Automatic annotation (TrEMBL):
<dbReference type="InterPro" id="IPR001932">
    <property type="entry name" value="PPM-type_phosphatase-like_dom"/>
</dbReference>
<feature type="transmembrane region" description="Helical">
    <location>
        <begin position="48"/>
        <end position="67"/>
    </location>
</feature>
<protein>
    <recommendedName>
        <fullName>PPM-type phosphatase domain-containing protein</fullName>
    </recommendedName>
</protein>
<dbReference type="Pfam" id="PF07228">
    <property type="entry name" value="SpoIIE"/>
</dbReference>
<keyword id="KW-0378">Hydrolase</keyword>
<dbReference type="GO" id="GO:0016791">
    <property type="term" value="F:phosphatase activity"/>
</dbReference>
<dbReference type="InterPro" id="IPR052016">
    <property type="entry name" value="Bact_Sigma-Reg"/>
</dbReference>
<dbReference type="InterPro" id="IPR036457">
    <property type="entry name" value="PPM-type-like_dom_sf"/>
</dbReference>
<keyword id="KW-0472">Membrane</keyword>
<keyword id="KW-0812">Transmembrane</keyword>
<keyword id="KW-1133">Transmembrane helix</keyword>
<feature type="domain" description="PPM-type phosphatase">
    <location>
        <begin position="99"/>
        <end position="336"/>
    </location>
</feature>
Length: 374
């Protein structure tokens, strides 16, 4: 037998209502008993003593009942948190420490108290076209943004394996986000005059950065309004400085999507990906967090450890803000642990966009080959 939403809502509200009754009834009885015992005329000293004893007994009984109610509420809260934590882990999966020759580490901070997942998203998958990475930031944070996060991540996990180029992956993400917006529009009440609400007005958008690290360690990227990552090696520097595309949902994607050719990720180098909450974090005086400086310090001592970089930047962020996080943040580090590819095992660049490709001949000197005509 199917349960209606009204039945589920009534059952969900019943424990809370019964809890109020359990608290109010003993409290009201205790108040009445104490008022009666202390205000009625006293016959003798022993009678006054018995009244005090009666008040203490009633007080202990009420305290016991209130403790039972509190313990039950705490148990239900633990169960709800366990279910929420399991759902969050399904949505933002824990990344493996190593994937296809890359060392990984990630951490997410939610601005919503009690939540591990907010409006930020990330995922790393190994595909036939190379390791593909997505990181994004949904407008807003907390529970209202989780629907968009689920739509984008679900689409990426399929498209990353199905699409030969990053442009195809990005178009799939855009279509998934548009479907999510249309579903939101259908859930909104009709506007004045009976018109359908317009949730596709550009107010709901998501910034997305797509990366592809091919078998030749060449990095390709498509950026829709997201902060560019940093390359960590001898210091910290932006991976690219090109003008990004508009965020998904703000404007239609252009007809031609050409990925940026960001050069090779050399052995031992790492990429630091983040959402804008890290750069926009402020202290009590309104000063922005110096992310590049913190990255340079975290990457100063070899060997460069992704887990150590994430841990140090996270600690520096908390020190800078005094623990007051006002926006969701996602931090992700990928280090290239692949051995250099020699002439005998040269691997062609994977599809993902035109441009230069870099093939390692030795551990010391890379040779760059321009693509042939056509």
């Amino acid at each position: 037998m199917n349960r209606t939403k009204a039945t589920e809502d009534a059952q969900a509200e019943a424990p809370a209502s019964w809890g109020l009754v359990e608290c109010a009834l003993p409290g009201g009885l205790l108040t009445a008993v104490i008022t009666w015992e202390l205000t009625r005329p006293a016959a003798d000293r022993d009678d006054l003593l018995s009244r005090i004893v009666n008040c203490v007994v009633f007080l202990l009984v009420v305290a016991y009942l209130l403790i039972r109610v509190r313990r039950r509420a705490a148990r239900e809260l633990r169960e709800v948190k366990a279910v929420a934590r399991a759902a969050q882990e399904v949505l933002i999966r824990t990344l493996p420490p190593r994937l296809d020759g890359l060392a990984l580490s990630a951490r997410q901070l939610s601005a919503s108290r009690g939540a591990d997942v907010g409006g930020d998203l990330y995922e790393v998958v190994a595909t036939a076209y190379g390791v593909r990475v997505v990181i994004g930031d949904v407008r807003g944070h907390g529970l209202p943004a989780i629907g968009a996060v689920a739509a984008v991540l679900g689409s990426f996990r399929e498209a990353a394996h199905d699409e030969a180029g990053l442009d195809g992956v990005l178009r799939r993400l855009d279509r998934a986000h548009q479907r999510h917006l249309r579903e939101l529009a259908r859930q909104e009440p009709p506007a004045a005059g009976g018109q359908e609400p317009d949730s596709l007005s550009g107010e709901e958008f998501v910034t997305v950065l797509l990366l592809e690290i091919g078998a030749d360690a060449e990095v390709r990227a498509l950026n829709c309004g997201h902060p560019w990552p940093y390359r960590l090696g001898r210091g910290a520097a932006r991976l690219a400085s090109g003008e990004p595309l508009p965020p998904l949902g703000a404007f239609p994607l252009p007809a031609d999507l050409l990925p940026y050719q960001c050069g090779p990720l050399r052995p031992g180098e790492a990429l630091f990906l983040h959402t804008d909450g890290a750069e926009d974090a402020r202290d009590s005086a309104g000063r922005f967090f110096a992310l590049e400086e913190a990255l340079a310090q975290a990457a100063a001592g070899p060997p460069l450890s992704p887990a150590a970089v994430v841990r140090q930047v996270h600690a520096a962020l908390l020190r800078h803000t005094g623990g007051r996080i006002t926006d969701d943040m996602a931090l992700l580090v990928l280090r290239n642990d692949r051995p250099p590819v020699g002439d005998s095992s040269r691997v062609p660049a994977q599809p993902g966009g035109p441009g230069l490709c870099c093939t390692w001949v030795s551990a010391r000197e890379p040779t760059t080959h321009a693509p042939g005509p056509g």
